[in-house]
Amino acid sequence: MWLSSIFERFVEKSPVTVIIRTMMEVVLADDFLDDLFDETAQKGYTKELLFSTLVKMMTEVVCSVSQSIGSVYKAMAEEIGVSKTAIYDKLNRLEPCVSQALVRETASN
User: Fold this and answer.
1) Do residues 21 and 7 make contact, with C-beta atoms less than 8 angstroms apart?
2) Distance of CA 99 to CAs 32, 54, 109, Å?
3) Measuring CA to CA, which residue among 65, 38, 70, 66 is closest to residue 52?
4) What gap in Å lies between CA 61 and CA 109, rounded to an integer?
5) Could you report how far apart the first and last alpha carbons of the chain are, in Å?
6) Whether the Cβ atoms of residue 36 and residue 98 lie closer than 8 Å to each other
7) Residues 54 and 91 sit within 8 Å (Cβ to Cβ)
8) pLDDT tens-digit profile of 61-109?
9) pLDDT, tens digit, for every residue of 24-42?
10) Which long-range contacts (CB under 8 A, 24 or more apart) does 50-55 make?
11) Ramachandran region of residue 17, left (φ > 0), alpha (ψ -120 to 50) or beta?
């Protein structure tokens, strides 16, 4: 594979970074997150705004890539396709059981 020599340099210089990124890509895969929401949410529903989109946005803030959900929204508005109000409404209505399941499932992987 032509990328192997480039990838090996990253592994040698910062193996923890590579491991964490790989884990995040596997554990926070869109299908996994959306299925988890569908199986866990008791009142929540999905129309246009997917749970995986919310997780991506929150990950940007938690990892200090962006300062706020508002700034993530500005950068991703076209990709997201819903209003900022819809984002905040879904975040505010997110059931604790969904967050608990996310923590439980990601910790077990």
Assistant:
1) no
2) 14, 12, 16
3) 38
4) 23
5) 28
6) yes
7) yes
8) 988 888 999 999 999 898 889 999 999 999 999 999 999 999 998 887 6
9) 777 788 999 999 999 999 9
10) 51/98, 52/28, 53/80, 54/87, 54/90, 54/91, 54/94, 55/28, 55/102
11) alpha
Block residue for tokens 């910062």: 14
Give the residue from 94, 86, 92, 105 showing the smallest Cα distance to 31: 105
- Which residue bears the tokens 């929204």? 73
For residue 43, give Cα distances in angstroms to 57, 78, 98.
22, 27, 10
Residues in the chain: 109
Q: What is the token pair recorded at 105?
A: 């499932």
**Using an 8 Å Cβ cutoff, are 44 and 95 in contact?**
yes
What mean pLDDT do residues 43-53 have? 90
Place of tokens 């866990």: 40
Helices (H), 2-83: 4-13, 15-27, 30-40, 51-62, 69-80
Kindly report the number of other CB atoms within 10 A of residue 71's CB atom: 14
